[in-house]
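Example 3.2
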Amino acid sequence: MAVNARSAQEFVPIKEVRNGIIILKDGGLRAILIASSINLSLKSSDEQVAIIKQFQSFLNGLDFSTQIVIQSRRLDIRPYLLMLEGRLKEQTEPLLKIQTKEYIDFIRSFTDEVNIMTKTFFVVVPYSASAIKSKDGMIDSLLGGGAPKKQVEDTKKAMDLASFEEKRSQLEQRTNVIIEGLSGIGIRSSQLKTDEVVELFYKTFNPGDISQGIKLQ
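Structure, written as tokens:
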């Protein structure tokens, strides 16, 4: 029995990534923020309560849905080991050379036995609105049935661009609300650029790649 193999891309609802903004196949837009974290265990009891209340107030003040994603990945220690090995070759002091070699062996054996994980925090900001439909019939009625094909196509592109810019503006306002709200709690955040969004989704769908993740700017 023949089995029709389906591409994984068919299951991903992303049409394209433009200027750091994810455009979904249904016309919706998404922006992804990378955020820093707060170690509550290092705060006093009063500070912990204040931060939690501020965060609760921040969430209750939002008039749109949002999603917080925590991604855990194994830390890639290889670049650090390569740096240490480079210094080992340059080291001329015998004692320091021995200590550096022992330290490299310790780090290598320790990371082989224990999975050191890193956590990255993301906030997904959505915006969905009825896209401006550019159906042939509507455009023909605007331009007249005898309009040249190129003119019709140019009008479609102009309407699509106008629809995108309108939704992008609304999404940008929501993104700024999130950034300012998190900043008030002491959390830094910034929007991912196009290459960073592509890298994030690539590594999400290719978990075997343990290379370093995206960094907060």
